[in-house]
Specification:
alpha+beta, Nuclear Transport Factor 2, Chain: A, 7-stranded mixed beta sheet, 3 helices, 7 strands, about 30% helix, SnoaL-like, isomerase
């Protein structure tokens, strides 16, 4: 059986590779995402369903930013994994640098992600380069 940490690691690989199908397959239909309020481009708040999270959050961020999601530590706790890491990169327009720590709380059930709660310093997404 796959552990929640292994599922989380597959999630970060899919993000790094820009593999939309793998992301879609990893998230449940009833996926619940919470993104830190204050994130740029209106992506903060609650997002219901995997399509909403993939298109309205990650797709929007990817269209505006060239950012790497760098997980550094995986802390398993039952069916959840707390992942500590950093976002690093810049706006595609070149006017904003991104260097922001994050904590992701990922909930896994039946080898899929049912929820992700993102906590990050949103101000670090708006620092001029």
């Amino acid at each position: 059986m796959t552990t929640p940490t292994e599922v989380a690691q597959r999630f970060y690989r899919a993000l790094a590779e820009g593999d939309g199908q793998a992301l879609f397959d990893l998230l449940t239909d009833d996926f619940e995402g919470v993104v830190s309020k204050g994130m740029p481009h209106g992506v903060g708040g609650e997002h219901h369903g995997r399509v909403a999270m993939i298109s309205a959050v990650w797709g929007r961020i990817d269209s505006v930013y060239d950012v790497e999601v760098e997980p550094a530590e995986f802390l398993p706790t039952g069916d959840r994994v707390v992942v500590l890491g950093a976002y690093r990169g810049s706006a595609r327009a070149g006017d904003t640098a991104v260097d922001a720590a994050f904590a992701h709380i990922i909930t896994v059930k039946n080898n899929q992600i049912t929820a992700l709660h993102q906590i990050t310093d949103t101000v670090r997404w708006t620092i001029p380069a």
